[in-house]
Amino acid sequence: MLLPLYTALGTRFHVEKAPRSRPTVVAALADVGLPTDLADAMDDPSYDDALRASHHDGMDRVGYDVGTPVISVNGISFFGPVISPIPRGEAAAQLWDGVLAVAGTDGFFELKRTRTREPIFD
Fold it and tell me: What single DSSP character describes residue 36?
C-alpha cells in the first residue's frame, strides 16, 4: 500500500499543488483505501526520534554536502536519483546497470547537471 499512497500524495503535492495539510493527507489515504486516522501520525511527536535516526542513517552513508533522495547500492551510497520522466522497461534496466557500474567504480563520487525542464509526472 505504500506505493499507491506515495503516488496519491505526490500527485496532490507536486501536480495539483495541494497544501501539505491534514485534509490533503486524509484525502490521499481515503483514495487508496487506508484508514484516514493514519493522518494522526502527522502531529504525533512519538515518531520524531525514529524519523530523525532514519534520516541521519541515510545522510551518514552519503555525506552531508548533498541532498535527498539517497540511494544505497552494494554498500555504496549516492545522492539521487533525480529523474524525469521515470524510465520504464528496458530503459529502467539500463539505468540500473549504470548505477551498479558507478557503485562498483572505486573513487566515483558525483555526476550532476542543471535541470532544464520541470518534472514530468507520467
Answer: G
Given the C-alpha cell 505526490, which residue does it identify?
10
15 within domain boundaries: yes
Q: What is the pLDDT of residues 30-87, one digit of tens each?
A: 999 999 999 999 999 999 999 999 989 888 888 888 888 888 888 888 888 889 898 9
Beta-bridge partner residues of 79: 70
> Looking at the domain assignment, is residue 119 inside a domain?
no
Q: What is the pTM of this model?
A: 0.66
Domain that holds residue 13: 2-43
Q: Where are the alpha helices (DSSP H) in the chain?
A: 2-10, 22-31, 48-62, 89-103
Burial of 39 (0-12, 13-18, 19+ CB in 10 A): buried
